[in-house]
């Protein structure tokens, strides 16, 4: 299997006029193509009579936080200094049944050099027998120590493990992938891919972008038990198409700069992310694409 490069879209949004204009006719044609693409997605996925779902209930305060599942960052970084709380789905990070690991990196607040006594993180791995139906079961729980401020450290790390039972098994996706740490000129290749995606945004090629990623992202649809209605809401009805179909007065995709290349997933995945605030990194990745 080809080496997988995550298409992390770090092009930021600002006010300027360099985006491709889309007429109403263009938008209707684009939506029609997206509807056809959704049918392709649905034709590739399996459906299951039972839909068990796993989530992370993340609560944190007085710090900044990065969370990984099986060495893969979740698609949200808790970069705010104040408290944050989120129930985050992780089925598509598990890939199948078995033992899994959740790890955390706790950073100081902006402007601070050490994790203080105000820092607190609580993470629960919760399991729904049916996706978001009924009351979930808490499988394991992680808490930062009450004396974390006494440690006088710039970074605190910890992890917990749990077992999951899922109806699908896509572990071969990563198992059969080349270790990216062995690839020459990896950063150059990743930058080329990111710049290609950036140009697709500027040109308004939403369908082409999604079509390009179909072969590797259909599995996310299956692992999250998404049907036609959910896909239409995500790709057509929501504001997702904004970046591709907006008027040119709204935004510009800025050059990719001030980034860090991150290899994760035990060497099988890579993405670029912005560097902000004393080396703390932040970004969102489209996994397996």
TrEMBL record:
Residues 1-19 form the signal peptide. The keyword Signal applies. It comes from the Bacteria. Keywords: Signal. This is Uncharacterized protein. It comes from Bacteroides stercoris.
């Amino acid at each position: 299997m080809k080496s997988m490069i995550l298409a992390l879209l770090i092009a930021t949004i600002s006010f300027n006029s360099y985006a491709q204009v889309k007429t109403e006719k263009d938008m209707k044609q684009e939506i029609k193509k997206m509807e056809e693409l959704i049918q392709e997605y649905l034709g590739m996925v399996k459906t299951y009579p039972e839909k068990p779902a796993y989530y992370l209930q993340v609560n944190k305060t007085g710090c900044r936080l990065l969370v990984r599942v099986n060495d893969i960052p979740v698609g949200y970084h808790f970069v705010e200094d104040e408290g944050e709380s989120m129930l985050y789905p992780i089925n598509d990070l598990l890939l199948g049944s078995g033992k899994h690991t959740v790890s955390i990196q706790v950073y100081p607040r902006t402007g601070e050099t050490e994790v203080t006594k105000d820092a607190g993180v609580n993470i629960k791995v919760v399991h729904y027998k049916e996706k978001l139906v009924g009351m979930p079961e808490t499988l394991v729980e992680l808490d930062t120590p009450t004396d974390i401020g006494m440690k006088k450290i710039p970074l605190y790390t910890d992890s917990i493990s749990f077992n999951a039972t899922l109806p699908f098994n896509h572990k071969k996706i990563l198992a059969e992938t080349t270790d990216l740490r062995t690839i020459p000129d990896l950063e150059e290749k990743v930058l080329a891919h990111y710049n290609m995606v950036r140009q697709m945004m500027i040109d308004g090629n939403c369908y082409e972008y999604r079509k390009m990623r179909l072969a590797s992202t259909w599995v996310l649809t299956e692992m999250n038990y998404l049907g036609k209605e959910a896909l239409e809401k995500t790709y057509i009805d929501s504001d997702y198409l904004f970046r591709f179909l907006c008027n040119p007065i709204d935004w510009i995709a800025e050059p990719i700069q001030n980034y860090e290349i991150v290899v994760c997933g035990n060497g099988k995945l890579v993405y670029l992310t912005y560097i902000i605030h004393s080396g703390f990194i932040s970004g969102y990745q489209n996994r397996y694409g």
